[in-house]
Design a protein that fits this description.
Number of strands: 13
Distance between the termini: 42 Å
Helix content: 25-40%
Structural class: alpha/beta
CATH class of the largest domain: Alpha Beta
CATH architecture of the largest domain: 3-Layer(aba) Sandwich
Number of domains: 2
Strand order of the largest sheet: 7-8-6-5-11-12-13
Shape: elongated
Number of helices: 11
Order of helices and strands: EHEHEHHEHEHEHEEEEHEHEHEH
Strand content: 15-25%
Largest sheet: 7 strands, parallel
Length: 330
């Protein structure tokens, strides 16, 4: 699980700082230092800037100022300081709407919470690289055995990250992680705030909380549960990944009961992502793959081993294309 981020805050009121501290605690982050910039101070003084530059090991800066006030522009010297902004993320929040009323304040705090959740991934990306391709592995009844068989048949060098959505009851994720750890080369991990979808990994989605995949290949975890009858929801996450990664990946629907994944398979295909299914005769329960096949969106059907072989061939072909395109530019 991720450690708490150490944040530096540049803010123009004590009341605003108190609100930010409350939100930071909610997302498990820590305000390590803060600088109060008053409207009449003319921005951050040279001595304050020098003091800030001595602070070590911060993970990110949060600048929350009222940009309707012309004095706020004078704090640009902080953002432009290489020692503050070059190596860590800087979140800039225009907080002018806080003065408009309680509704606007709630909206601002909601957006601030989401930005602080997302910055965990930005920090992690400084030391890790997201995979070029993301594939969803969707399953229900009989899924663990089929997915493990699929993973065991894959070579280790593929530049792909898997996100595994398995319909299971809460409390069984650790047992499934243990099972996945014995299945081939792909390192299992539980989805967590700011997690990076790295090559060679399988990220298991816990049914207890909803997640989203960001464009940069990181995860945001939310407190609210998955909507609808399925936990985790294949349709919800597949629709999310179709928007963020489109042709850079796809979805494989394995054995399972029900129709979760049917609606999103159309969207994945529309976004030029690939939709594959486990061959129905190899399934414990074939309801899910059969339902996807009936949409006409599935481009390939095979046993878990055949799916692994096809994916390996597909990704190697993409890698060769990228190498050829890179060579052509020189």
């Amino acid at each position: 699980m991720p450690r708490s981020l150490r944040l530096g805050v540049i803010v123009d009121s004590e009341a605003k700082l108190a609100l930010i501290k409350t939100v930071a605690v909610q997302v498990g982050q820590k305000i390590e230092c803060s600088v109060l910039v008053s409207a009449n101070s003319g921005g951050v003084s040279p001595s304050e800037l020098a003091q800030l530059e001595t602070i070590q090991e911060l993970d990110a800066w949060l600048v929350a100022l009222n940009y309707a006030d012309a004095q706020a522009a004078k704090t640009e010297q902080v953002l432009l300081s290489p020692s503050l902004a070059s190596d860590i993320p800087v979140i800039v929040c225009d907080s002018s709407e806080l003065s408009y009323g309680p509704v606007q304040q709630c909206q601002w705090l909601k957006r601030l919470k989401l930005r602080l959740q997302r910055v965990q991934g930005d920090v992690n990306l400084l030391s890790r690289r997201a995979a070029s391709s993301v594939w969803l592995l969707a399953a229900s009844t009989g899924g663990p055995s089929a997915v493990c068989e699929f993973l065991q048949a894959l070579p280790s060098e593929l530049d792909v990250a898997f996100v595994y959505l398995q319909h299971i009851n809460q409390g069984y994720s650790s047992a499934l992680i243990s099972m996945l750890s014995k299945a081939g080369h792909y390192r299992p991990r539980l989805a967590h705030q700011g997690g990076v979808l790295e090559a060679g990994t399988v990220t298991l989605v816990d049914p207890a909380y909803r997640i989203e995949v960001q464009n940069n290949g990181t995860l945001v975890c939310f407190d609210d549960p998955w909507k609808g009858p399925y936990q985790p929801s294949i349709d919800q996450l597949a629709a999310n990944v179709a928007r963020t990664h489109s042709f850079r990946g796809g979805m494989i629907v394995f054995t399972g009961m029900g129709e979760d994944g049917v609606a999103s398979s159309r969207l994945v295909a529309q976004q030029k992502g690939l939709v594959w299914v486990q061959k129905p005769e190899t399934c414990v329960v074939d309801s899910m793959p059969q339902a996807v096949l009936q949409t006409g969106c599935a481009q390939f059907s095979g046993s878990p081993i055949e799916l692994a072989q096809a994916l390996s061939k597909h990704l190697h072909h993409l890698q060769e294309q990228q190498l050829n395109e890179s060579s052509a530019t020189y």
